[in-house]
Amino acid sequence: MKKAVGILFAFALMISVSLIPGKAEAANTYFESEVVRLTNIERQKVGVAPVKSDSNIAYVARTKAEDMRDNNYFSHYSPTYGDPFIMMKDFGIKFTKAGENIAARQTSPSAVVQSWMNSDTHRETLLNPAYTRLGVGYAQGGYLDHYWVQMFAN
């Protein structure tokens, strides 16, 4: 009986631990989707067409956010991948015009979008009518706690 209880406990522990990353990924995906939604609300306010969420660009943006977290930097230039335009091309993203917004330490999608809207250069990128596609990446952890990346393309 003790052996059966021990096996059952170990199995339950294994299942609960394996679910934790899935929950974190789901939260990250929600945060990323919410940034796209809030971005489109801001674009709508000024009469700019919405951007479409692009899962391929989102993968690149998430990779960039994780790279900043894992390698302790905060910059448009990645020591791993180079500038955002080279990175997007290396990941197979086709575009003729692209832009990137990055942010750190904001704890929610609304806080990060508001932060970008409060900055002239970030707002200009976010509201640029030339961009039709958007990928958002979010990574938690590292020395800045929260890393956000928006990658825009036409």
UniProtKB/TrEMBL annotation:
Signal peptide (UniProt feature, chain positions): 1-26
InterPro entries: CAP_dom, CAP_domain_YkwD-like, CAP_sf
Regions that span the bilayer: none
Keywords: Signal
Domain SCP: 37-152
SUPFAM superfamilies associated with the record: PR-1-like
Highest taxon above the source species: Bacteria
A Pfam family annotated for this UniProt entry: CAP
NCBIfam families referenced in this protein's UniProt entry, alphabetically: spore_YkwD
Record protein name field: CAP domain-containing protein
Organism: Priestia aryabhattai
